[in-house]
Write a structure and sequence with these properties.
By secondary structure, the chain is α+β, with helices and mostly antiparallel strands. The protein has one domain: NADH Oxidase. Helix content is about 40%, strand content about 20%. The chain has eight helices and eight strands; from the N terminus they run ββααβαααβββαβαβα. It has a four-stranded antiparallel β-sheet. It has a two-stranded antiparallel sheet with strand order 1-2. α2 crosses α6.
Length: about 230
């Protein structure tokens, strides 16, 4: 019996999906390799000013855009910035918010929890990294001057952001998730439309050499997973 290349569902064309499966031993090996590779990823706060080609950044963004989303609305925009003047404006505005956070907004417990990571209100990585990617979430779409809500926006953009980080790591580059709060200044500096809200800022580039990161451990499987067999 021949298999159709496409079928019609509710008046919409659905195409045949080609999926590659692996043997049990291959799956085990591939899953272990992938975990170890991702486990080597670290957040980096000091960047070399070595250039990264625009094409690499384009491919990284395209990889992130393959994320699933509510009703396939793809409610995200990725703003990639290499312009030094714009990066300086972003750093200046970000550090204003960060100083306010470290001086008065953060609790003593929060500051204590951050101490091992060595963070502070100085965000020179915004200017040093060759690229900054700012992820915006589109809370609604504008059609014929009407606002039409998107679905599961935070969940969808969060998944895309995770895939973005993985794509950056895959390219042999490093990044850091930065969320200065509030982030409204990013909308203004980048002149984004009214339906977008800043979600995440990521510097992208090569680490400074030598580079040191906090000696921290991730939670073990028993601490994060519950199996019902």
């Amino acid at each position: 019996m021949s298999i159709k290349k496409s079928i019609d569902i509710n008046g919409f064309k659905h195409v045949l999906h080609e999926h590659k499966s692996f043997s049990e031993s291959q799956m085990l090996a591939k899953s272990k390799t992938y975990f170890r590779w991702l486990d080597s990823r670290r957040s980096v706060r000091e960047y070399a000013k070595t250039p990264v080609s625009k094409e690499v950044i384009e491919n990284i963004i395209k990889a992130a855009s393959t994320a699933p989303s509510g009703a396939h609305k793809q409610p995200w925009s990725f703003c990639a910035i290499s312009n030094s003047e714009i990066k300086s404006k972003i750093r200046e505005a970000a550090e204003i918010e960060e100083r306010a956070s470290y001086d008065s907004r953060m609790s003593e417990r929060w500051l204590k929890d951050l101490a091992p990571l060595g963070t502070n209100d100085v965000k020179e990585f915004i200017e040093d990294a060759p690229w900054i990617i700012v992820v915006f979430k589109q809370v609604y779409e504008i059609e014929d001057d009407k606002n039409i809500n998107n679905y599961y926006v935070n969940e969808s953009v969060g998944i895309a952001a995770g895939m973005l980080i993985s794509a950056i790591h895959n390219a042999g580059l490093v990044t850091l998730t930065h969320t200065p709060s509030p982030m409204k200044f990013l909308t203004k500096v980048l002149e984004r439309p009214s339906n977008e809200r800043p979600f995440l800022l990521l510097p992208v580039g090569y680490p400074k050499e030598p580079i040191y990161v906090p000696n921290i451990n991730r939670k073990g499987l028993d601490d994060i997973a519950v199996f019902y067999e």
